[in-house]
């Protein structure tokens, strides 16, 4: 009989990827499924990036091992990027390029956590944080946030959960799944709290440039030198540049932590794929107008889609400020249709209405569902029609 480690028994597969896989199987069977589970832009990667990567392959400069931390021009471009967008200065040895932001987080938790160390994770949370923390032997301290408070934590909440085992705090603004953004004042208060208690801030800023309707995200590291020194920023090119498949992310911050992450990666991944690094370099240093075009398209979709979702019977939704998800409480709709649990409701929506949402349990909020607006407006409208019809026939 095969043996599986105790470590792996404690974690479960990413529910977003699992739902997406189910949808793909149904699509392959010829079903017309509207897939609103996907956490990636439906835009093409820009031609300037494609050309740079092809050139790097054809000239053979991208086809061998690179330094584990990434090619120097890319690390420099990441440093320049933070200077340009936030006015924050880092040195090149404070950057590690990784296979997506996901692997930056994975390496980070391995480097900072000892068994039993606690990480404060605001809920609802992105599905991989909790599993990665468990894999590193850490303990998730989940802190619930309320929709009336914009799904945001305060220092008061944090203080209630702090003890001598607290090592880090995870902040994801704009948030997946809620799309909410912390204001500079809120971030400053949290940053000062973290500095006062020597708690590492892990700032996942992957949706940082996807903000709408006048809302802006700022980097917590830009608020003071002390806060910057207490923060590791996680970011990447997946969402901003529609490059999810290229698998390039990074961590930037404390040089000692970064150098340990490089040591770890030297034994696990060696380096992120060479061609992808050249693509990422072109993304960060090349034309940026298409980023704004994509952002504006998401903003238009949000403004179109939000009122439609709010009009679905039994759906209660707060309007997000960034990212590309809505996160309604759908418990009432599920109950109206005779389902005790939202996950059975979302399963029935896939199978009978052929609309796929992700149930909120993987995000720590089982009464909710995550809906991505990463498809065109007419498909969003069609999805809402199908959900309304489903509810109408089941109630
Ligand atoms: N962080 C958050 C909040 C995310 O939503 C995602 C992707 O869904 C990631 C990190 C990882 O992104 P990637 O590994 O594609 O860079």
TrEMBL record:
Residue ranges of the TM segments: none
Cofactor requirement: pyridoxal 5'-phosphate
Keywords in alphabetical order: Aminotransferase, Pyridoxal phosphate, Transferase
PROSITE patterns: AA_TRANSFER_CLASS_1
GO BP, one annotated term: amino acid metabolic process
Pfam families: Aminotran_1_2 (PF00155)
PANTHER family: ASPARTATE AMINOTRANSFERASE
Protein name according to UniProt: Aminotransferase
Species for this entry: Trichococcus pasteurii
Phylogenetic lineage: Bacteria, Bacillati, Bacillota, Bacilli, Lactobacillales
